Amino acid sequence: MTQNAKNPAQQLTKIDYLTVVFSPNEVARCRFDAKLAFGNGDFSSYKEAYNAMLCAEMFANNPTDDFTNDTKTSLVATDDLDVDVSETVLFNSDYYYNELFDNNLSGSSKYRQYNSIQEIPEEDRKHFLKSVVRKTKRYKALTSLIEGDISKFMHLLNTEVATAADRLTSDTLSWSYRDNSGGMFTYEKSATLYRHDINSGVIAWGANNGGVMISFSGTGCAGLDIPKLHTMLQKMPNVKITRLDIAYDDYEGNRTVLDYFQNLEEGGFCKTNQAPSFSFIQTGELKKLTDLQQAEFKKKHGWQKRYDCVANGGNTLYVGSRKNGKMARMYEKGKQMESESQPNWVRAELELRSIDRVISLDALLNTDAVFAAAYPAFAFITAERLEIRTTSRQRQNNGALIAERLERYCVQSYGKYLNFLRHVKELTDIEIINRLTKGLNPWDIPDSINKACITPPNQMELTT
Question: For 274-284, what is each residue's pLDDT tens digit?
């Protein structure tokens, strides 16, 4: 089966929840620099390195509108934080980083009691660092870039990506958002996403969080032209799917929740030797027994039973764990919705998160193949398979330690060849380096070092 955005095949399944994150290239470069700085051991955490990158080279001598000139060669921030700008600060080690923030302690009424930032309690320290970072011109510039990308996203959502039925006139837009009073999922700012004034998702963003997160609920996904959304996402900078829920609706109830439970016992949800966890929930009501039924039950079992538990509210089966990035849930949707026309309606859902796995954009176009490949019990959907494979888990080592190990392997494997190039071919060191790194970009580094660098917490967003 050939799948593309122009001629998508009819799918039996549908997208019921979708979360994407993206960031401008300037933010992505800042995050990359922070990874390198942390990997080199210059900072004790990725977040500290990232804050340093946000501050670097941005304390210019010209004050911004929320800084006022002091009599000295410094700028006084509105929150009592002194920022020394006697010279441009270059963050190439934690010495400069600590020096900058230490200089701000004396100017803050809240933190002047501490002699260094290391003495500040962890939670207060995070707030202090953010307070300094938010006063930088770079932070404001990156925030403006991010908010500009949100505006472009919303424009394309209304003009291109919305379904034909959802596209209204230029004066009446089907999609809009309203700012919330606070942030969400560790992001500093957030807004509620509306489709025809119905709550359909959330938007969260911030320069200190590395970009934008947009989540579409089931109501929101129903108003999206998925192939066009796929095309738009392909053109967006540094985009990544962090959550994808795929649903299969069996309106006739040909496969019941108890059938899926039998599949579980038969191994239909086991793809490796490690079996997943499960949870089976029944809901219903109590039905009072007659006096005769109570007496017969007590005579037979030896204890008084007054009620029968009637499971008429619906059964639900959960398989897997959300924290591991893959979970299935099967439940009686017809009973949940109290549907009279479709009382036997059973829904099976697959929830994927970008935890130890990369969810490709092509998964949006072929949800059937993704659904069928997730568990053997879902194989009845289609013969086609699109695997969302897990990446190998590695211990979180310092990037510098991994780099040392790679250097040792390189000496063992290629040291003699490099010696040949220098002494027999008589190439200079620069010529050898240029020959061996031809075609590589500055950010092309070994995956083992890249994965060792801790990523911002919001990149594993915790939408529930």
Answer: 889 999 999 98
